[in-house]
Write a structure and sequence with these properties.
Blueprint (H helix, E strand, L loop, with lengths): L1 H37 L37 H37 L1 H16 L2 H12 L3 H27 L3 H8 L4 H37 L11 H8 L8 H28 L8
């Protein structure tokens, strides 16, 4: 009886980290999305009489401001929620743009081949040869630091990884029997794309997008930390960490809190992405 139930228990334990990660990410996203709609706050307002109030876990803190206040008197918990919403929203939107651009380039290179494949593969190699932060910094300095420009910057710097993965998968798929048979029966590239290629690369794209979102969050946070991201009164996690570093000695939580949110979100996305990758690739699934 125990032996029969053991595989089931092991299966549940293997799925538990991914389930917990999904729930925690959903709660963070829900709180970041819903709270600003329920309790609208003027991020440009100041209350200097209440500046730098300690959080509830420090002497003198109160539940009126659970994480204290910032140098301008803003409730820091509210700032953190708005910053999480902005950082996640910009990163996810940029990820969608990068996924679309990279997928289209990978499809053209993989299905058409020939000169198109060679040129696009060269373009991908050139893009990957330059660090994303260098390109993003130059683009942010040139185009500005609005949310729309940051979304475009992330999309235009993150497409190469998607293009390479999609191209490689299509090169593998197009030699398989069912696609060779479709070509021999006169199926067009468009039909092969819709009926065979897209269904087979969809799970790969989802897994890669989940894992790539980590780098996009770090990219957005890095730009904001350097002063090239969102500007006040807008807030982001990188901007809060940047402003909080001036108060590390006495008000250390101003820099630590947004940094912990970044680390926590990235850790949960990594666990979720690893689980999705294991589920999508039978070769990575445990044998027992």
């Amino acid at each position: 009886m125990l032996d029969a139930n053991a595989p089931g228990r092991r299966s549940v334990l293997r799925r538990l980290p991914a389930v917990i990660s999904t729930v925690l990410l959903a709660l963070i996203a829900l709180c970041a999305a819903v709270f600003p709609m329920i309790a609208r706050v003027d991020l440009g307002a100041t209350d200097l009489l209440n500046r730098l109030k300690p959080p509830v876990f420090e002497p003198g803190g109160s539940w009126a401001h659970p994480l204290g206040t910032d140098p301008l008197g803003h409730d820091y918990l509210v700032q953190l929620i708005y910053a999480t919403r902005n950082s996640l929203g910009i990163s996810v939107a940029g990820m969608l743009i990068a996924t679309v651009i990279g997928t289209l380039i990978g499809i053209v290179a993989g299905l058409w081949g020939g000169i198109a494949d060679a040129l696009l593969a060269f373009l991908v190699d050139v893009r990957l040869a330059v660090p994303s932060i260098v390109i993003a910094t130059a683009c942010a300095a040139f185009f500005g630091s609005t949310p729309q420009s940051l979304i475009l910057i992330i999309g235009l710097t993150g497409w190469a990884g998607f293009a390479r993965i999609v191209r490689g998968e299509i090169l593998r798929l197009r030699e398989l029997t069912f696609i060779v048979a479709s070509r021999s029966m006169g199926a067009s590239r468009g039909r092969i794309l819709v009926e065979h290629v897209l269904p087979n690369i969809s799970s790969l794209l989802i897994v890669n997008a989940t894992l790539q979102l980590n780098s996009f969050i770090l990219l957005e946070s890095g730009l904001s930390f350097l002063g090239l991201g969102l500007q006040p009164p807008n807030v982001s996690l990188g901007l809060l960490a940047s402003k909080g570093r001036d108060y590390l000695i006495d008000q250390w939580w101003l820099a630590v809190a947004p940094s912990l949110v970044i680390v926590f979100v990235i850790a949960q996305l990594t666990l979720l992405g690893d689980r999705l990758r294991d589920r999508s690739d039978p070769r990575l699934r445990p044998t027992s």
